[in-house]
Amino acid sequence: MLRFLVDRLVRLVLVLVAITVVSFLFMHAIPGDPIALRLGEHATPVEVAHLRSSLGLDRPWFVQLALYLGAVARGDLGQSLFDAQPVAQKLGQYFPATMELALSAMLFAMLIGIPAGVIAAVRHGSAVDALTMSAALLGVSIPVFWLGWILVYLLAVLPSQHGLNLFPISGRIAVTYFIPARTHLVVVDALLAGNVRAALDALWHLVLPAVTLGTIPLAIVAKITRSGMLDVLSSDYVRTARAKGLGQRAVVLKHALRNALIPIITVLGLQTGLLLGGAVLTESVFAWPGVGRLAFQAISNRDMPLINGCILLFATVFVVVNAAVDLLYAVANPRIRYS
C-alpha cells in the first residue's frame, strides 16, 4: 500500500509539472496583452511598461517559467494580474462552492442512476428497460446550459410570475441568512452554526444546479450499471445462487451488484473528477461562485497566474480522485490488493 501511495504521489508531481509548463507556454503563445487589459485603453505606454516590469513580465519567457516553477514549489501560486489578490487565496474562496455543487450533483447521479441501471438490467428487454435507457440517452444528449436555462424558466421564473416561489434562480443561500464561514461549505457551516432553516435553504439553492450538473453523470452511471449487471447476471455463480434457492433481492444486491461495482466506481471517480474540475456552464447559468466561473473570468482577462492556478487545482483534484478510486477497488473486490 505504501509503495502504491508513493507511486501515485510521484505521478501527481510529474503531471502537475507537465501541465504547468504546457499551460504556461500556451498562455504566452496566445495573442493579447494582459497588462493592457488590466490598465484599460487609456493607459500610457509608460504606465504599461512600469506595471509589466513590476510583475516581471518583461523578462524572457524561460526566465518567467523558471521563476514560476520555483514559486509553485514553495506553495506560492502568484498574484492575480486583474486584482493583485493571491491566487491561492482566491482558489480557497471559490473551490468550496464548486466542491459542494459537484458532490451534490454526484450524489443525485448515484441515488438515481445506480437503482435505474439495476432495475433496467433485472427487467432486461421490458418496457422499463427501454424507457430507462431512452431517458439515459436523452440525459447525455441535452446540453448542460440549455437544461439549466429550461429548469430555471420552468421551475423558478414561470412560477414566480404566478406568485409561486418554488426555486431560487441564483446564489448559494438567501441574503437574509448570515452564516459564519468555517468550512466555506454553506450547508455544513449552517449546520455547525445550529441554523437548520439556513441549511435547508442552502440545500434548496443546490437543487436546480445539482440536477443540471448531475444529469449527464446520472445517464452514464445508469448505462454502465445496466451493462455491468447484465454481464454479472448471466455468470455461472449467479445461476448457482439462484439454484440454491436464494431470493431475487439477495441475488441482485449481494451477489450481482457488488461484483458489478468496479466499472461503476470507475465511472463515478472519473465523473467526480471532471465535475470538481469546474462546471463552467452550470456555474455561469446559476451565478454560482465556483472555480469554473472563476476560470472563465480569468481566461477572459488573460490572467495567466490565475489560469495556471485553476489548471493546477483541476489536475490535482482529478489525480487525487482517481487514486481514491483505485483504493476503493480493493474495498469492492477483496481479491484486489496493492503491494
Features:
single chain; 339 residues; mainly alpha; MetI-like fold; 0% strand
Describe this entry's structure for a reader.
This protein has 339 residues and is an all-alpha fold. It has a domain at 91-289: MetI-like fold (Orthogonal Bundle). It has helices at residues 2-29, 34-39, 45-54, 61-73, 87-122, 127-141, 144-161, 186-192, 196-233, 236-243, 248-259, 261-276, 280-285, 291-300, 304-332. The longest helix has 38 residues, at 196-233.
Oligomer: single chain
- Enumerate the spans where pLDDT stays under 50 for 5 or more consecutive residues: none
* CATH architecture designation of the domain at 91-289: Orthogonal Bundle
CATH class of the domain at 91-289: Mainly Alpha
Task: Give the radius of gyration.
Answer: 24 Å
Task: Specify the overall morphology.
Answer: globular
The overall pLDDT, averaged over residues, is 83
Brief summary:
The chain has 339 residues and is an all-alpha fold. It has helices spanning 2-29, 34-39, 45-54, 61-73, 87-122, 127-141, 144-161, 186-192, 196-233, 236-243, 248-259, 261-276, 280-285, 291-300, 304-332.
Topology summary:
Elements: H1 2-29, H2 34-39, H3 45-54, H4 61-73, H5 87-122, H6 127-141, H7 144-161, H8 186-192, H9 196-233, H10 236-243, H11 248-259, H12 261-276, H13 280-285, H14 291-300, H15 304-332
Helix pairs in contact: 1-15, 5-6, 5-9, 5-12, 6-9, 7-9, 8-9, 9-11, 9-12, 10-11, 12-15, 14-15
